[in-house]
Amino acid sequence: MSYAKELLVAQLAVQRAARLTKQVFADSAKGTVSKSDASPVTIGDFGAQALIIAALKKNFPDDEIVAEEEAAKLREDDSLAEHVWNLVKGTRLDDEKAEKEVLGGSVQSKDEMLDLIDKGDSKGGRSGRIWAIDPIDGTKGFLRGGQYAVCLGLMVDGDVKVGVLGCPNLPVDDAAELSADIGNGEGRGVIFSAVQGEGATSRPLTTGALEEGKRIGMKKITDLSAASFCESVEAGHSNQGDAAQIAQKLGITRPSVRMDSQAKYGSIARGAGDIYLRLPVSKTYQEKIWDHAAGDLIVREAGGQVTDVLGRRLDFGHGRTLAENKGVIAAPAAVHDQVLKVVQEVLSV
Ligand SMILES: Nc1ncnc2c1ncn2[C@@H]1O[C@H](COP(=O)(O)O)[C@@H](OP(=O)(O)O)[C@H]1O
Ligand SMILES: [Mg+2]
Description:
The chain has 349 residues and is of the alpha+beta class. The protein has helices spanning 4-26, 43-59, 72-76, 78-89, 96-102, 110-117, 139-144, 240-250, 263-269, 293-301, 333-347, and strands at residues 32-34, 41-42, 64-67, 129-137, 149-156, 159-171, 188-195, 200-204, 214-216, 229-231, 257-258, 275-278, 304-307, 328-332. The strands form three sheets. It has a seven-stranded mixed β-sheet, with helices on both faces. Strands 11-10-12-14-13 form a five-stranded mixed β-sheet, with helices on both faces. Bound molecules: adenosine-3'-5'-diphosphate and magnesium ion.
């Protein structure tokens, strides 16, 4: 089974949505809609979700979609909806042909936009074709002026087949050192992609699918003490104390790099950094599939292994959440077992 068309549509959809988010990012208020500490939201989340779903519905009308946002807030507040609509109708790819022939052109009206946003309400599950969308992953990073990612994955019968991550604030250069710093914005913007069984690639976000991607691969490390690892900026998303103990037991001396969003998966997949740990803080939190689907495939296709802290593969067929998993360990396949063992010692699981 070839997923060439799905990959092309996903890359162009992410490229166009990322373009919308960049406009919001450039604004000092960052389009904040809600500052809720648990899950802040910006107008960029709604706009990017509408544009991605428009492209998916045009090309794959029967596929289901699991997306993070819903339009209820916009339906209650027309000036907010108008604001999002202005962004959505004004955002196109430079390539007119791709915009029209692949993405299906613009959304026709504000009402259509609201309906599209609400098409991301699938329950997910173990059968059929289901897309997972996180329009702005790492919203807290976005609001701080840091890293964020536009994320899209296709699952078929619960298995991720296509993954695309648009990271507007990561360096284009795959050889750049691991850092969450966005500098002055020069040389930034990369899109990571993978298709199951076909490897992972990166290319500049601005050229999107119009240019061949470059193969990426995880760093080959044998000595774990030389590894560098990354984790969430938010202490509420991943236990940083446990991570420090794990690093110490592995003999890692370099401080962890803290970075928001699935940009962490993309970074280690291209060998900028080696290990991504996401260690449960609360016993009850269930990870969301849109926070991991694309990254999980990209890392595995780049030569990595991704499991939870109990060593189980992430189960994307369970529904909208990874209810059957706890935490995430992403590392080069050759050393994943070693890392897992130490994680389990420290967490006593
Ligand atoms: N208590 C918690 N534990 C783990 N992840 C959480 C969490 N609360 C929120 N998140 C998720 O963490 C994501 C960001 O991950 P990271 O810390 O790697 O940047 C958020 O995505 P959004 O920013 O799309 O809401 C959100 O879904
Ligand atoms: Mg997210």
